[in-house]
Amino acid sequence: MNSPSDHTAQRRLAAVLAADVVGYSDLMFRDEEGTLSRLRDLRRQVIEPRIKSHHGRLVKTIGDGFLIEFASPVDAVRCAVELQEAVASPQGKADAKPLQLRVGINLGDIMVEDDGDIFGDGVNVAARLQKMALPGGICLSGKVYEEVKGKLSYAFEDRGEQRFKNIGQPIRVFCLLEGMDTMQRSPERRPSGSHPEGPSIAVLPFVNISKEPEQEYFADGIVEDIIAALSRFKSFFVIARNSTFAYKGRSISVEQIGRELGVRYVLEGSVRRSGPRIRITAQLVDASTGMHLWAEHYDGVVEDVFDLQDQITASVVGSIQPSIRTAEIERARRKRPENLDAYDLVMRALPYVWALEYEANKEAARLLDKALLLDPGYTLAMALAAWCRGQRVVYNWSKNLQEDKRETLRQAQAAAALAYEDPFILTVLGAALTITREFQRATSMLERALSLDPNSAWAWNRSGWLHNYQDDPEVAIEHFERSLRLSPFDPMAFNCEIGIGCAHFIARRYDLAAQWQEKALTSKPRTAWIHRTLAPAYALAGDLDKARESVDELVKSYPGIRLADIVQALAFSMEAMSRFAEGLRQAGLPE
Q1: Which CATH number fits domain 6-180: 3.30.70.1230, 1.10.3720.10, 3.20.20.70, 3.40.50.20?
Q2: What span, in angstroms and rounded, lies between the C-alpha atoms of 111 and 278?
């Protein structure tokens, strides 16, 4: 929009609320008339009455979005919360999925045209905050937060300073009602015992057994770090610190806390100091059954207390993710087939996705296709489906290599467009870009994923492979080892071992290359594609008998496979690939 000249506009301080309807284009594509009717009803029955009751002014509507001006930031936030809660309630047809909004609120200087339209940085920041908000969520600037803190009984999450396009200064951002995945409401605003779709967790304050005040701060710091790190997982619903710290010093059962906060999982722990040494314990509990899913203890010394805090956070978060994932898979398996929804289907698909075996890949694709029929906009299902298709390319299962490459990238990009702040989705896109050999873009995606979640074992795994493909084996080994430290029992751990083996091959350490890949094959004996890189390692290490046996095993699972097929599937550099090819020739694989 072109700005009018200054003499036609008046300046004033105002709270600006910007909102839009999530997935508007997709809704219009599926049912244009129905969507337009629902939006008209939404404006007339929900938006306009609540704006009026909170003394706001509807400035304008723009397609699926609208802009509102308030004199009071408190009124703006109250209105936003009521709008989100009203919109989330079923409206219209009983089978229609509730609409969702993203909302951004800023307090700033605005300019007002004669016709009532508004513009300026105060408006621009609100629009940027709205784009940052998750579906069902609200993001507000630090200026708004300073005006409403202590006046409203909501649990806000501090997201720190954020930089936005065309906004000169960084903006401090606070969020609440983070809908869908990481909704963060205070307990009194959520029905007791309600569960969001997907895994939900509360991290309780760790108990200070030492009774020394400095250990109290240390324990609280660890909990805050863990909450912040878990909040990066967009597939987790994480209760905000303000809510869990309300239980500090109270003796309440995990089952009761689970009911009150509406979560499936609770992490609890303790801190004990003895002289210069500190011991931290942590355990993950299924709140519905009281069963312990995972437990660990960590020892360190007072002098290294901050390093210890970082190590514990990384280790706990790295262990929690696969533990919860395993529990969720089991939960989905216990459900009757007729009761499965899209989330359950994805959980059932996960073990098959990570198996990296041909038959498992087909079953994963079948389950994910069913999930996407139920929910075409389910970004996790989209990303996993893209990765399943990518596996066909990488592991020589594809019947149409070029089509599978195109579809892998298309589906991964579509998921990332809908979930651009989800580190897992970005990691899938990074993996897809390595398949199409767009290494610069892949690097950008993986770096972004790791900045959002530095404890993502899979992102470190994919970064390791990317460095292998770019002839950087020493960094590749570091990244694979970091992935293994973060999640040593992860189903993808064997893939890290293969990656380390390939890194040693690239560095011409053929004996080590063979040893690491043998270790992976022992863990996953049915993954015959390992022989594509194991056989040349044997050959160039001088053990042609083992190399020929390895190729024989490869051909059993891939009848008719040729050297050209493997060269086309793998993404190593020309120099490294020429050595892999030479080793396969020596081992007897036909051209």
Answers
A1: 3.30.70.1230
A2: 57
Compute the distance between CA of residue 519 and CA of residue 501 in angstroms, rounded to an integer: 9
CATH dotted code for 194-328: 3.40.50.10610
Half-sphere exposure of 169 (CA within 13 A, CB side): 7
151-155, 355-359, 463-467, 539-543, range with the lowest pLDDT: 151-155
E-strand stretches of 422-521: none
Residues carrying CATH 3.40.50.10610, the chain: 194-328
Q: Which fold has domain 335-454?
A: 1.25.40
Token reading at 76: 């703006």
Domain with CATH 1.25.40.10 in the chain: 335-454
| pLDDT tens-digit series, residues 412-459 | 998 888 887 788 889 999 999 998 889 999 999 999 888 888 878 889
Q: Which of 59-63, 82-86, 191-195, 242-246 is least confident?
A: 191-195
From CA 261, how far away is CA 192, in angstroms rounded? 6
Distance between CA atoms of 344 and 337, rounded to whole angstroms?
A: 10
Burial of 402 (0-12, 13-18, 19+ CB in 10 A): exposed
Structure tokens at 436: 């199409």
Strands in 393-529 per DSSP E: none
pLDDT digits (tens, 9 = 90+) for 147-189: 988 787 676 777 777 777 778 788 888 887 543 333 333 333 3
- Residue 580 pLDDT > 90: yes
The residue ranking higher by pLDDT, 212 or 298, is 298
Helix 439-452 to helix 423-435 angle, to the nearest 10 degrees? 160
Rounded CA separation 472/442 (Å): 15
Residues 354/492, Cβ–Cβ less than 8 Å: yes
Digit-coded pLDDT (tens) for 94-113: 445 567 788 999 999 999 98
Alpha carbon dihedral 488, 491, 493, 495, in 10-degree steps, equals: -170
Orientation of helix 493-506 relative to helix 574-586, angle to 10°: 100
Are the C-beta atoms of residues 547 and 587 closer than 8 Å to each other?
yes
- Angstrom distance (rounded) from CA 219 to CA 205: 7
Residue pair 547/535 in contact (Cβ under 8 Å)? The answer is yes
What is the 3-state composition of the chain as percent helix, strand, coil, each rounded to the nearest 5? 55, 15, 30
199 neighbors 235 (Cβ within 8 angstroms):
yes
Distance (Å, whole) CA 34 – CA 185: 31
CA 504 from centre of chain: 31
* CA-wise closest residue to 465 among 489, 499, 498, 423: 499
Q: Which two tokens stand for residue 164?
A: 């936005």
Nearest to 333 by CA among 313, 352, 358: 352
Q: Where in the chain is CATH 3.30.70.1230?
A: 6-180
User: What would the two tokens of residue 515 be?
Assistant: 């040893």
Q: How many CB atoms lie within 10 A of CB 5?
A: 6
CA distances for 437 relative to 83, 353, 388, 448, angstroms: 45, 22, 18, 18
